[in-house]
Write a structure and sequence with these properties.
Elements lengths: L5 H8 L5 E4 L2 E7 L3 H18 L4 E5 L2 E6 L10 H15 L1
Antiparallel strand pairs: 1-2, 2-4, 3-4
Helix pairs in contact: 2-3
Length: 95
């Protein structure tokens, strides 16, 4: 899968709330307020990631979650696969 251009990434970010670009990654940061709420979200992240066979780096400190997406097969760059997973995770967050 080919890496996206900077322009493509910026356009995708328009409808990806809580997501930003950091280096060659899409990064999501959200404060859920409680550990339980963060873990409930992360369980759903696991199901979505597994369904796509594309897995984020996951960081959870109490109720604050940080996810990082990059495509290893594309030289650790952002691809459409990352954007597609990010969109699915926004849908999970929005319920």
């Amino acid at each position: 899968m080919a890496p996206l251009t900077e322009r493509d990434i910026q356009e995708a970010l328009r409808d990806l709330s809580d997501w930003e670009v950091a280096g060659d990654r899409l990064v999501f940061t959200h404060d859920f307020g409680t550990f339980r709420a963060a873990m409930a979200f992360l369980v759903r992240v696991g199901f979505e990631a597994e369904a796509m066979n594309h897995h984020p780096e996951i960081h959870n400190v109490y109720g604050r979650v940080r996810l990082e997406l990059t495509t290893h097969d594309a030289g650790n760059r952002v691809t459409q696969l990352d954007v597609d997973l990010a969109r699915r995770l926004v849908a999970v967050l929005e319920g």
